[in-house]
Amino acid sequence: KIVYSLVDSGGGVFSADPSSGVVILEKPLDREVQDSYQIRIKATDRAGGEGSLSTEVDLTIMVLDVNDNPPVFQKQDYAVTVPEDVTVGTEVLRVFATSSDIGVNSEIYYRFLSGNELGKFSIDDSTGKM
């Protein structure tokens, strides 16, 4: 009979079932706080006393990203003054936002929510160019 235990539990984030060795999550994960954990698992036989044998193995746990961070604009408010004779198609402003997520979860798309009811302006949905 083998008994499993964690030598290093990643700061209490993980535990191990002593009978099966299954690693169990004990605390919520947040990739933006910590993106990986190194834990060490020990397996000991039940011979007992000085005759017990054991071995240890390192386990790396990588935390994958989920889309849990909203985009944040570089500025809270944008304002621009445009002369009435500006040529159609001229870039008048470029807005910019970022996300703490990674990969596809950090991709940002721009669109007007209001204020462009007459369709006088357009925005590039991937660059924020207006």
Automatic annotation (TrEMBL):
Subcellular location: Membrane
Main location: membrane
Record's keyword terms, sorted: Calcium, Membrane, Repeat
GO CC terms: membrane
Signal peptide: none
Domain Cadherin residue range list: 1-73, 74-130
GO BP annotations listed: anatomical structure morphogenesis
GO MF entries: calcium ion binding
InterPro entries noted in UniProt: Cadherin, Cadherin-like_dom, Cadherin-like_sf, Cadherin_CS
SUPFAM superfamilies: Cadherin-like
UniProt cross-references to PANTHER family, sorted A to Z: CADHERIN 23, CADHERIN-23
Protein name listed in UniProt: Cadherin domain-containing protein
Organism annotation: Cirrhinus mrigala
